[in-house]
Specification:
globular; about 550 residues; about 40% helix; 19 helices; homodimer; 6-stranded mixed β-sheet; about 10% strand; alpha/beta
Chain lengths: ~550, ~550
């Protein structure tokens, strides 16, 4: 069988090191659509990274599924060695790329696990299978999931509902089910964030969290899900930007030889790809210098350098470190061998049907009918429905404030972090359309709404359906939103305008709000925030009318 | 030369009538992305309209340029006779389909015409060429532009800045330049809305406006731009949903034999396609009955029935009218002959390069590199830039409130109609990012913002950059938004917090606000609202600092 990968020895040192680099790019096709110009290069630079530097992969954010199908085609077209193309599709491909299937956060499945472990495992396995298949359909070959962090700190702003649960058992069972589900597809999985990011209340996107636990505790709580994932055959493990003094008093996990090589590679016996979390994150780039961080990560044992600040600079720095004898050449060679193994699985071009045994370029063209036949199929949408239904919590009081009321001219007050974010709430989503169809008037509060002096004179008295979209979000945190929501909730409750409450997102916020609700206020909690979750939650609510 | 269109005689009456129908569909690929379920059918129904009923065309709304490229491929794949695929891309393909070039509204070019007619005509011509070429690149073959309405009523909620000016000369010159520009491409143009929609202050999407002018006035103002467009070779003319008693005391233009046949076909000698405006619009569908409206439109002389409420019902009703002798069969035959002529121009499949003289199916696949080489090219973006720059109005006072002030902790107050609408303002657009980079804090007001009790105690005192996105919008009108904006403007002015003002959109609103501004408040007016307009306006503003 002819290999589509070049012989390792035919690659220069720089070419080998370049294969260890995964750069970030926008999923949109056009430069003028780039949303994060600080992180996402324009096409000319991206093409030079892929075609000339020869980076090993790209991580994509933004764009719809259809656009990404074209974008991955363009990227593979530029590459001489087929690329790993990764995306943070923890909640299905539709979480990031509109059109594909969008699953609720993993913690919804963990909630189902509490009363029906077998069903929950089945859900996680099927969710992974669908995610892997849809990723493949649009040219992604590296699903940066599952999280195996144990979210045992409800204040965790960055992991939170992204975790497959709060206990070792739940997380291990569901994460391994996820890995099993993705296994049959030519798509890599990633267990993250090593050695465990569940017990922190600091967002590592902003600063470096410290995990103060001793080794015993780490071996009891944080590490077992990684062991389970490795045993289940996970393809890669992503490091965390965390300081864990019990394992390494000096370096954060991403740069720590003790953590990546001694603990993960040697003690846990992991033979797949070790990938850093994004090296541009402040905790790393600012603390160590951008290029030095890349060298330290390779020294520590990383095979893949994710999103270095300056790819050419990082490659150059690692090459210099090899030439200076600081990094042995075998260190590079081992990583590239692992990358080759991964690419054999994830990048094999399809055997062309017409000409026997001729290899086609990966994705020669994109066909609408193939996309439509592979994404968001009825079985996938039914699975999302089942997970949402089975994890939803509904309170139907005997004497509900919703019953026997005219809904005309009631207020549909939606509070969300950011009305300018695209995917959750729009004029066409059920959180808006269903109440509107019953006569509710939409009002909207987000973190940019001015005037927060709430009093009887400033807000006309109206029976109010309050819908809160609130979960722990990386980069933003939910503290500010939580305060605004709490203020409105109290105001509406105290003025007896609160007719019904729906919370989408955080079960922790939900648990915090419920005790203060009058008993005749019906409520629904959904783990999901996407349109399908809104439809299911509001259907449950209005079925009471 | 082999024709790719079947012989007319081989088609049944129903098949011929079906060719006269253009149905509406979402540009998105997936059913779960449909935003207007009342108007946009799911794939199964759409496929049956195209494949089984054999409708003649589809009008698309929604989705990005990349998605539409796939969507048009899918539609042509379903069709036995190649489809006309239309879109309301009056302001460039990017106005509707993200990724392509988005031009400012035509009235921006009309403003340039006032001081440089030749340059303005050149702009209109180049805008049309780019729009036609980009339409073709994503499989659209019918550009529903240019407007030839003379916007001589500043209160016009539906035409407004969509018009190529306020005088017969400006509109005629620029609209014909547009038609010339599109001419070399295999894409149809449409002059609209016959016999002239410029002098009304009622939105015909909501009710039927009446144009009370006599015939003399119509021949002096409304009709000449249509005559000019016809002389320039426009491919189609779209009717208006208007009542014009001077021309027809009974029927609105869309259903009027006097207007469509006697005036347009006979008096003006137009030989191309006469297309109705959307038959689902309330003024028509409610007034005459959905299927009867289709029959009346054919009787009146329409060749294309745009968006009938029920395509199968409309086809059936027209067939019955023919069989009952109410419509002569030649009436249908003439229309389909015109449609065939149009399709010869707009739907010819590309000659396959490899096999000589073999016809390829239209759009066999979509290639990222072809899209990237054809949409939003640097010359197109430069043209948008030039139109925006040349039509922008800037006031730089000697003693500007912006000069020598710290901008840290200032307020960037953005007022727009609907924060949930996607395209204008986002966290990544210049209206947000440029002020943020200077230290401004974003605040956002839209029509859903609760609490409008503005007073010193409810709004913390802060120097404020006020950015208004306000233009006449079909369906919504700008009256409510205008009131909100006026209230904030007055409040900020009276409390001396107004540091600078940018208005994006309506020159009429701008003219209304300017006299009340203190002389030391700098301001910018831009016809454009898109991100590129924001960048140019804010650059002009902050260059004063």
């Amino acid at each position: 069988m002819p290999s589509f990968l070049p012989q390792l020895d035919s690659l220069s040192l720089a070419a080998q090191v370049a294969q260890m680099v995964v750069v970030r790019a926008s999923g949109y096709l056009f430069d003028h659509q780039i949303r994060y110009p600080a992180w996402e290069p324009p096409a000319k630079i991206l093409e030079s990274w892929v075609a000339d530097l020869g980076v090993g992969g790209v991580i994509l954010l933004g764009g719809s599924a259809a656009e990404v199908a074209l974008r991955t085609q363009q990227l593979q077209d530029w590459a001489k060695v087929p690329l790993l193309i990764a995306a943070d599709v923890e909640e299905g491909v539709g979480q990031r790329f509109a059109g594909a299937t969008w699953f609720p956060p993993p913690m919804a499945i963990a909630a189902i696990y509490q009363h029906n472990p077998d069903l929950a495992k089945q859900y996680a396995e099927r969710m992974a299978a669908i995610t892997a298949q849809e990723a493949q359909a649009i040219g992604l070959n590296w699903v940066l999931a599952p999280l195996v962090d144990v979210n045992n700190n409800p204040e965790n702003p960055v992991i939170n509902v992204r975790a497959f649960g709060e206990t070792v058992e739940t997380v291990s069972q569901l994460a391994t089910a996820f890995i099993r589900g993705a296994k049959p597809y030519p798509v890599l999985t990633a267990a993250k964030h090593f050695p465990g990011h569940g017990d922190t209340n600091v967002d590592s996107h902003l600063e470096l969290p410290v995990i103060p636990h001793n080794l015993e505790r780490l071996r009891a709580i944080e590490l077992p899900p990684f062991q389970a994932a490795i045993a289940a055959g996970v393809d890669s493990v992503m490091s965390a930007h965390l300081q864990i003094p019990a394992l390494d008093p000096i370096y954060p996990a991403t740069l720590s030889h003790r953590i990546l090589t001694q603990e993960l590679r040697q003690n846990l016996g992991f033979e797949g790809l070790i990938v850093t979390d994004a090296l541009v994150m402040g905790a790393i780039a600012n603390g160590y210098g951008a290029n030095e961080a890349a060298v330290l990560a390779v020294e520590a044992g990383a095979d893949i350098l994710l999103m270095p600040v300056d790819p050419a600079g990082a490659i150059q720095a690692v090459c210099s470190a090899v030439e200076a004898g600081r990094i042995p050449p075998e260190r590079i060679r081992e990583s590239v061998e692992r990358i080759w193994t991964a690419k054999q699985k994830a990048c094999a071009p399809p055997l062309k049907e017409t000409t026997s045994h001729a290899w086609e370029s990966i994705q020669p063209s994109v066909q609408a009918k193939e996309l439509v036949a592979q994404l968001a199929q009825p079985t996938a949408i039914a699975l999302v429905d089942a997970i949402l239904q089975d994890s939803q919590r509904v309170h139907t009081p005997c004497l509900s404030r919703l019953a026997n009321q005219s809904l005309q001219d009631n207020r549909n007050l939606v509070i969300l972090d950011d009305a300018l974010e695209r995917d959750l709430v729009g004029n066409y989503t059920p959180a808006v359309t269903i109440p509107a169809s019953k006569g509710y008037q939409l009002q909207l509060i987000d973190s940019h709404t001015p005037i927060d002096a709430l009093n009887r004179s400033s807000v006309p008295q109206q029976p109010t359906l309050l819908q809160l979209f609130i979960r722990g979000n990386p980069f933003r945190g939910s503290a500010g939103l939580n305060q605004t929501a709490q203020k409105w909730l109290n105001f509406l409750r105290d003025t007896e305008q609160l007719q019904a409450l729906v919370i989408y997102g955080s079960p922790y916020i939900f648990d915090q709000y419920v005790p203060s609700l009058p008993p005749n206020v019906p409520y629904v909690f959904s783990y999901g925030q996407m349109p399908q979750a809104q439809a299911i939650a509001l259907e449950a609510l209005f079925s009471m009318v």
